[in-house]
Amino acid sequence: MSKLIFVTGNANKLKEVKAILSAGSTPIDIDSESLDSKYALFRRDLPFRYVSRILVDEVQGSTQEVAKAKCRRAAELLKGPCITEDTALCFEALGGLPGPYIKHFLEKLGHEGINNMLVGFESKKAWALCTFAYCAGPGEEPILFEGRTDGAIVPARGPAKFGWDPVFEPAGTGLTYAEMPAEQKNLLSHRYKALEKLRVYIQSL
Ligand SMILES: O=c1nc[nH]c2c1ncn2[C@H]1C[C@H](O)[C@@H](COP(=O)(O)OP(=O)(O)OP(=O)(O)O)O1
Ligand SMILES: [Mg+2]
């Protein structure tokens, strides 16, 4: 059976995916060296940033449509099975936006600007939505695995190591993602919840 490749241009995602899948009651063995080299190899030979840009710029739509389009395209380029992941950050006051477009808002506005987007709205509620997509190969319909964690947008607290981690506080924790130890985030995060579904599927293949 050919190797399943997780395609991403984001090293922080890769780190969390490895940590989550190799832990838990039914751990999935990951050859981290080969995963790393696939990741490096993929990025060197087929510049995913470029691919990702095209997909992000041209495929507009719901999180599910964006996620499927990216995975379909990655499977075509790899000519084999693969997994991709899309993360959305959705604001209740904005009807779920920015959603899959959070990356662009974060790049242009920063943490403070993300907070300012909600000035004048009473609700600071938000949810993080992770969508893994699995595609069996070129021309196959991707299957989606979603995980959602509810919380609120808050002024930045904690180290700014990964995206919007400092401005998202999961409900009931009193801590932002950035303030949590990795082990805590990785047991309640949007990514963890989606990976728990993907884990079951991968083990059934
Ligand atoms: O747990 C997270 N905690 C904080 N920030 C996060 C997280 N997960 C994704 N993020 C950020 C990265 C990017 O600014 C946006 C998602 O965009 P998204 O297209 O899914 O990621 P990406 O382009 O960095 O990597 P990829 O090559 O897998 O598409 O939210
Ligand atoms: Mg992307």
Automatic annotation (TrEMBL):
Name of the featured protein: Inosine triphosphate pyrophosphatase
Top-rank taxon, per record: Eukaryota
CDD domains reported for this sequence: HAM1
Substrates-to-products reaction catalysed: ITP + H2O = IMP + diphosphate + H(+); dITP + H2O = dIMP + diphosphate + H(+); XTP + H2O = XMP + diphosphate + H(+)
Role: Pyrophosphatase that hydrolyzes non-canonical purine nucleotides such as inosine triphosphate (ITP), deoxyinosine triphosphate (dITP) or xanthosine 5'-triphosphate (XTP) to their respective monophosphate derivatives. The enzyme does not distinguish between the deoxy- and ribose forms. Probably excludes non-canonical purines from RNA and DNA precursor pools, thus preventing their incorporation into RNA and DNA and avoiding chromosomal lesions.
GO biological process: deoxyribonucleoside triphosphate catabolic process; nucleotide metabolic process
Assembly information from the UniProt record: Homodimer.
Pfam families xref list: Ham1p_like
Enzyme class: hydrolase
E.C. designation(s): 3.6.1.66
GO MF: dITP diphosphatase activity; ITP diphosphatase activity; metal ion binding; nucleotide binding; XTP diphosphatase activity
Cofactor binding remark: Binds 1 divalent metal cation per subunit; can use either Mg(2+) or Mn(2+).
Cofactor: Mg(2+); Mn(2+)
Any one annotated GO CC term: cytoplasm
Residues that hold ITP according to the record: 8-13, 70, 86-87, 162-165, 185, 190-191
Xref: Gene3D superfamilies: 3.90.950.10
Keywords of this entry: Cytoplasm, Hydrolase, Magnesium, Manganese, Metal-binding, Nucleotide metabolism, Nucleotide-binding, Nucleus
Location within or outside the cell: Cytoplasm; Nucleus
Family statement drawn from the similarity comment of this UniProt entry: Belongs to the HAM1 NTPase family.
Residue positions binding Mg(2+): E58, D86
